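1st attempt posting a full record on here, be nice pls
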Amino acid sequence: MSQHDQAIRHDWRLEEVQALFDLPFNDLMFRAQTVHRRYHDPNAVQVSTLLSIKTGACPEDCKYCPQSVRYDTGVEREALMELERVLDAAGKAKDAGATRFCMGAAWRSPKGKDLVRVAEMISQVKAMGLETCATLGMLDDEQTRTLKEAGLDYYNHNLDTSEEFYGEIITTRSYQDRLDTLERVRDAGMNVCCGGIVGMGESTEDRASMLRTLANLPEHPQSVPINQLVQVAGTPLAGVEQVDPIDFVRTIAVARILMPRSHVRLSAGRTEMADETQALCFLAGANSIFYGEKLLTTGNPDVDNDRALFRRLGLSFEGEKCAAAPAEPQQAAQA
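the predicted structure (as tokens):
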């Protein structure tokens, strides 16, 4: 076991995680940045693009989600996207600098005929030289095998929040349902993408509990998206008190400390964040973003804005020599 691996733990106690949240901000940031530099290039950020391949009419009751059929949010039901449109979007994402292409569908669980079509999308996107990721809801063993055989690299299935707070947000599937899907994905040999949402009315203890659950999984998720709630009119969480930016940065930092080798993704909510908040998130150990104009059904900073911020911070896109070098302004890619 290497010296680095000795710091990889799966036995965190809740009080230990809460103690990290309670550290003075400068001490927490120093500790997170120290861990980050031990395991990662401190100035490189992995870039993913997310496409909604099937939008709306989801039967689940997730209180944050504008795609739930239970809420009137103005999101129109759309059928599963045709293969050609998906490949066109993937090509544009690759040209804009993305290395991973994520496909999301508003399902409780995919149906057989739909999964066959998604499997074809996965295999053809992968053939373009992109890593592939999918978020399709709960999976059984056969569905998991189908995605693995198609060549899927990552499967996203977020815990969303702590087990203690979960029932306040979702009642149509259990916390254990989510853990079971994660176990199937791990056992199939695919990478796990799993994180949560901050700003749904949860306590700091809930954030600590969620991160502890992730860190104590048999294997840390390879990708850990930390989302700031995007409030959408018509959902039950519209109008909830917004999370303090410093508290959000603390969540990023604690995730980095608990899961040193994982990519911690600064995910939904960046449109509402000041550049300075995003800069602190990168300092706290975030080293992955979603890139492009839209995340499923909500906005995202466009490509030009991200490149401008990266130049200001001296960050590069993972796989590029230096995205921070001066570049001519260009039209934002349309995903």
